[in-house]
Amino acid sequence: MKGQKQSRVDNLEKRMAAVTNVLQQLINELNNLKTMVFGQQEILKQFDEYEKAIKVLKEKATTELSEAKKAGSDRKDS
């Protein structure tokens, strides 16, 4: 009986180690993605039209947000 319990504990330890390895790989991949995104952002900032594009995106986001709020209030009224 004691051997079965030890076997189960060993199995659980192996599973936990596997999960830990997968999580570490995910963390490493996220860090790589973060570095790439920051690099691309710095490259984009070098373009002449960057400020104009940001202004257009902000206006678009504001418009979409106001439309979403309006649509939400229309649903409540019905």
How would you characterize the overall build of this protein?
- This protein is mainly α.
- The chain has two domains: 1-46; 48-78.
- It has helices at 2-45, 50-77.
- It is elongated, with a radius of gyration of 25 Å.
- The N and C termini lie far apart (66 Å).
- The mean pLDDT is 91.
Number of H/I helices: 2
Biggest sheet statistics: none
Kindly state the percentage of residues in helix.
over 70%
Order of helices and strands: HH
Q: For the terminal residues, how far apart are their CA atoms?
A: 66 Å
Give me some keywords for this one.
elongated; 78 residues; mainly alpha; 2 helices
Summarize the structure in short.
92% of the residues lie in helices and 0% in strands. The chain contains two helices and no strands.
Topology diagram in text:
Layout: H1 2-45, H2 50-77
